[in-house]
């Protein structure tokens, strides 16, 4: 005799799994209205006995939506009439050999669940039909009519492919075992594989016990998506879980991907130098070759490095930065390559991964590269050649996949001549050189940058500004900016704090910019005075010697300059 009760353990795995994954309550009821399996909340809210006329109604109809529980024809005579705890319920009959033997239910007792099931009724009904089919297959397997199989695996593969949300299911070790159709599409869009997600996700399970699992946005920094992690428990034992990205986010992300100009386009500037820089960075963004960014302090080398990373296919993995000038030499190797437990006094218990491991599959940014200690340079060169590291105190070789972007404000070729930098490392780093121009070399970008920083700094000051006064902009444009874009950003933030009105005026600028303006004016006056003196001297000499070729040669000799220089000065000074 076919019996749902005989298959209760296997059916319970299906019901528990589908309930945990979809965040709904579920139940299986036999044809006599008795509960076979259910979630705990379903049992608490509706009890072990279900209104038989309702069950018979579904058994005869096959599928049914109860969108007004307690107020429908099938509810007449039910003890919950007009006061049903359920907000919405989807029901489907379970058939074996075309005979209905029970009903499977997806139910929500919350307004949020009611909205979700009502909005996506067709999708959830498809899922329910597949669950019903799975239970039928379980029964047929138990009665010997089918070969044994793993119902939970088939449930995941069959049911989840009908869901518009992206689902990745994982085992108790954090390994992704299945990705539904929406998830496969998302991963393809991001150039990722399920194995990549496993590697990202496993660290978040480090504190996992058999009783609980942290629920968090586990991959938000890697996949750039709000991912919910939900545990799946069977008999109070953790057997795995599901990672979910909502269909709403997927749709929004797709629109933003089509509309976004990319992170490189966020680099502010319209000068020829900046246009060339962005074009070059765009061409090499997906390359695995090392990049060496040069430029003066404060030009935005780190900003460019991160923009290249975020525009690349590695953007969904870490961007890890290390300042080679700020770490003591004794700790540098440990910071870069990590260390094993007991490697040295004070070594962290259990060991610690270095920056290379932290940046695996992503980008490692080595700032102030010229300050890296010489002994470390040799080890870095070996890593760049072999793409394998060893932790301090360790013997295990760890393969890595990291793109290196280095930056320096020093002339590495001069350091090589001084024996302070290895030539072979320089050539390994300098595969793709990119120079960031000083702000003084692209003054046409000053206004755009100032307005951009004005917008950015509004959040820090909590004030709204209408703009920057024209006279203020003139002062900004005439200043020589030794600190480059970093100095300009600081100046704008300073002015926003000092300004009492809603427009940045010259009085709110730092004193050094105002004194620089006076100095520039004074210098201009001096240059004009010198030009006047030169013109007077040349005219007097021409009057003495004449303005023909012979006279001009004598003028040049008297003034101690060449004849060509004299002609240039005559033209520059407007002397005919």
TrEMBL record:
SMART domains hit by this protein: AAA
Lineage of source species: Bacteria, Bacillati, Bacillota, Bacilli, Bacillales
- Per UniProt, which keywords does this protein have? ATP-binding, DNA-binding, Nucleotide-binding, Transcription, Transcription regulation
State the PANTHER family in the record: PTS-DEPENDENT DIHYDROXYACETONE KINASE OPERON REGULATORY PROTEIN-RELATED (PTHR32071:SF117), TRANSCRIPTIONAL REGULATORY PROTEIN (PTHR32071)
Please provide an example of a Pfam family that matches this protein in its UniProt record.
HTH_8
Please give the CDD domains that the UniProt record associates with this protein.
AAA (cd00009)
Task: Give the protein's recorded name.
Answer: ATPase AAA
Specify the Sigma-54 factor interaction domain's residue ranges. Answer: 267-497
Q: Which organism is it from?
A: Brevibacillus reuszeri
Q: Which GO terms describe its molecular function?
A: ATP binding; sequence-specific DNA binding
């Amino acid at each position: 005799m076919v019996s749902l009760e005989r298959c209760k353990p296997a059916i319970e795995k299906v019901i528990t799994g589908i309930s945990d994954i979809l965040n709904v309550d579920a139940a299986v009821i036999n044809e006599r209205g008795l509960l076979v399996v259910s979630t705990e909340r379903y049992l608490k809210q509706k009890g072990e006995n279900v209104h038989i006329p309702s069950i018979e109604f579904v058994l005869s109809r096959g599928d049914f939506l109860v969108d007004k529980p307690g107020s429908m024809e099938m509810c007449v005579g039910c003890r919950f009439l007009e006061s049903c705890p359920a907000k919405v319920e989807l029901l489907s009959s379970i058939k074996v050999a075309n005979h209905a033997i029970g009903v499977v239910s997806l139910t929500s007792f919350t307004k949020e669940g009611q909205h979700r099931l009502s909005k996506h009724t067709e999708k959830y009904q498809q899922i329910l039909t597949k669950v019903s089919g799975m239970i039928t297959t379980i029964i047929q397997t138990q009665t010997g009519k089918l070969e044994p199989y793993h119902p939970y695996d088939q449930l995941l593969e069959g049911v989840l492919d009908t869901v518009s949300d992206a689902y990745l299911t994982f085992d108790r070790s954090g390994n992704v075992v299945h990705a539904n159709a929406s998830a496969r599409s998302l991963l393809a869009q991001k150039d990722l594989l399920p194995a990549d997600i496993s590697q990202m996700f496993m660290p978040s399970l480090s504190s996992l016990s058999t009783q609980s699992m942290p629920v968090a946005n586990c991959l938000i920094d890697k996949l750039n998506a709000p991912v919910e992690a939900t545990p799946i428990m069977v008999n109070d034992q953790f057997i795995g879980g599901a990672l979910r990205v909502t269909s709403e986010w997927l749709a929004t992300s797709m629109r933003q991907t089509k509309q976004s100009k990319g992170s490189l386009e966020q680099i502010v500037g319209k000068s020829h130098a900046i246009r060339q820089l962005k074009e070059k960075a765009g061409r090499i963004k997906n390359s695995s070759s090392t990049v060496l960014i040069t430029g003066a302090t404060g030009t935005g080398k780190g900003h460019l490095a991160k923009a290249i990373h975020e525009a690349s296919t590695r953007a969904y993995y870490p961007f890890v930065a290390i300042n080679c000038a700020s770490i003591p030499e004794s700790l540098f190797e440990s910071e870069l390559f990590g260390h094993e437990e007991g490697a040295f006094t004070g070594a962290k218990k259990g060991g610690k991964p270095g920056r290379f491991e932290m940046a695996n599959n992503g980008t490692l940014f080595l700032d102030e590269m010229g300050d890296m200690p010489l002994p470390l340079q040799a080890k870095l060169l070996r890593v760049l050649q072999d793409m394998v590291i060893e932790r301090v105190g360790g013997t295990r070789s760890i393969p890595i996949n990291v793109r290196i972007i280095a930056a320096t404000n020093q002339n590495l070729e001069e350091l090589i001549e001084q024996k302070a930098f290895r030539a072979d490392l320089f050539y390994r780093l300098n595969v793709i050189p990119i120079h960031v121009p000083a702000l003084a070399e692209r003054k046409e970008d000053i206004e755009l940058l100032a307005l951009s920083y004005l917008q950015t700094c509004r959040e820090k000051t909590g004030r709204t500004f209408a703009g920057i006064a024209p006279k203020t902009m003139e002062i900004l444009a005439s200043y020589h900016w030794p600190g480059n874009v970093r100095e300009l950003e600081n100046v704008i933030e300073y002015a926003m704090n000092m300004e009492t009105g809603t427009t940045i005026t010259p009085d709110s600028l730092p004193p050094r910019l105002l004194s620089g303006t006076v100095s520039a004016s004074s210098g201009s006056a001096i240059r004009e005075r010198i030009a006047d003196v030169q013109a007077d001297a040349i005219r007097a000499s021409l009057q003495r010697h004449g303005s023909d070729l012979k006279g001009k040669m004598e003028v040049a000799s008297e003034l101690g300059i060449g004849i060509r220089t004299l002609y240039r000065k005559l033209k520059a000074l407007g002397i005919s």
